[in-house]
Specification:
Layout: H1 24-39, H2 44-51, H3 55-62, H4 70-80, E1 109-113, E2 118-122, E3 132-138, E4 152-159, E5 161-166, E6 169-174, E7 178-182, E8 187-190, E9 197-204
Antiparallel strand pairs: 1-2, 2-3, 3-9, 4-7, 4-9, 5-6, 5-8
Helix pairs in contact: 2-3
Length: 208
């Protein structure tokens, strides 16, 4: 992800808090922000400086103690490389006793990478643990291009075909095939077929 220029204006004082109790989706929002910030390896100060707010205000947001203006959320989402709809999916809020363990089929958090033809659903309950499990759908013609990151990953092709590059090696996988490799090695995936490819993808530590 490209480093973004710091915003010169910093909001030193957070908006006045209201006395009303936050709603469940508001409670989830601060937790999601904190999870993504830690996964990206960013400090409170780095994020706050990049989006033009104070470190104290961001800390309050992450602890659900202050309201979050939509404009500030948009800047944070851009910095983290996610779309804003990542944060506004109330269907992920299952019964309290399930939230840390179970993801029901109708409550998966969804992400679409605009213009790439790649869509993903988070199968793991959250991004706090050591594993990130995704259902990836790669449309015909879609290509991730080469990239690398810390950790390791593995996958299983459920449907369709997958062109996979690991370093300078190229592999053609079809339904039923699986793979694993060190994520620090540059890698790339593409769908050169005519039907959508579906893959279960496991990444450690979580990358989003």
């Amino acid at each position: 992800m490209k480093r973004r220029a710091f915003v010169s204006h910093v909001l030193d004082t957070p908006p006045t808090k209201t006395e009303s109790q936050p709603q469940p989706d508001e409670l989830m929002l601060g937790e999601q922000l904190r999870q993504l910030r830690k996964i990206k390896g960013l400090t409170l100060h780095q994020v706050a400086s990049s989006v033009g707010i104070s470190t104290g205000y961001l800390s309050q947001i992450e602890r659900n103690r202050s309201k979050l203006p939509i404009g500030v959320l948009k800047k944070i989402a851009d910095l983290f490389g996610v779309h804003m709809n990542w944060f506004f999916q109330p269907e992920i809020l299952g019964p309290v006793e399930e939230r840390e363990f179970i993801v029901r089929a109708g409550r998966r958090r969804k992400m679409t990478f605009t213009g790439t033809g790649i869509h993903e659903e988070l199968l793991s309950p959250n991004l706090n643990g050591p594993l990130e499990v995704l259902l990836s759908v790669i449309e015909p013609g879609a290509d991730s291009d080469f990239y690398s990151h810390e950790g390791a990953e593995a996958g299983y092709v459920i449907r369709g075909s997958l062109d996979l590059w690991i370093g300078n090696r190229h592999f053609k996988l079809t339904s039923g095939d699986s793979f694993s490799f060190a994520s620090t090695t540059v890698h790339r995936c593409a769908n050169t077929g005519t039907v959508s490819t579906e893959i279960i993808w496991i990444i450690t530590p979580p990358h989003y």
